[in-house]
Amino acid sequence: FFSGNRSSKTFKPKKNIPEGSHQYELLKHAEATLGSGNLRQAVVLPEGEDLNEWIAVNTVDFFNQINMLYGTITEFCTEISCSVMSAGPRYEYHWADGTNIKKPIKCSAPKYIDYLMTWVQDQLDDETLFPSKIGVPFPKNFMSVAKTILKRLFRVYAHIYHQHFDSVMQLQEEAHLNTSFKHFIFFVQEFNLIDRRELAPLQDLIEKLGSKDR
């Protein structure tokens, strides 16, 4: 997806899937189908594969993509320019992770996204939630954790589109952003992973992306 040296600037360290693992093979499969340009096809569960594993691999991939996309615009997303975490005037997000911060707090977008990406990173690094070893089963609550991660990652896309699209265009990153977001949306739609209400801030865009592809 990303070319040029600026794209090496990620917001958080990239999460690597170990080479030689089955998940790595799945990621390669996903990249190959993506390369064919048919995003609807690229999100479909490959035959004979485990749904949890497919969702895990793609969740890591979306984390890495958003990491890069947000990394390119961090200098424009400041305590001053984005004193609240919003996606347009009608949607404002307050942070809570249920463990360290139980009661939702109002914070600036950079602070919120830092909390969010750190939280996602902690989930992805937790071997009991995201087992990287073959044969280690996924926990019973895996699907609900994955849904929460994807719901929160969506908010970073929503913030970038609503508050920073001008910067994205100046950096000529809009094709990357659109392809990444379209892939993300097709994926969550395919497996029904994010509640429609949560997608409301970008509903128009989602419909536009979907209609081009029917």
From TrEMBL:
Q: Which UniProt keywords apply?
A: Kinase, Transferase
UniProt GO MF annotations: kinase activity
Question: Which Gene3D superfamilies did the record assign?
Answer: MOB kinase activator
Report which superkingdom the organism of origin falls in: Eukaryota
Asked if the record carries the keyword tRNA-binding, the reply is: no
* Pfam families, alphabetized: Mob1_phocein
Which residue ranges does UniProt annotate as crossing the membrane? none
This one is known as MOB1A kinase
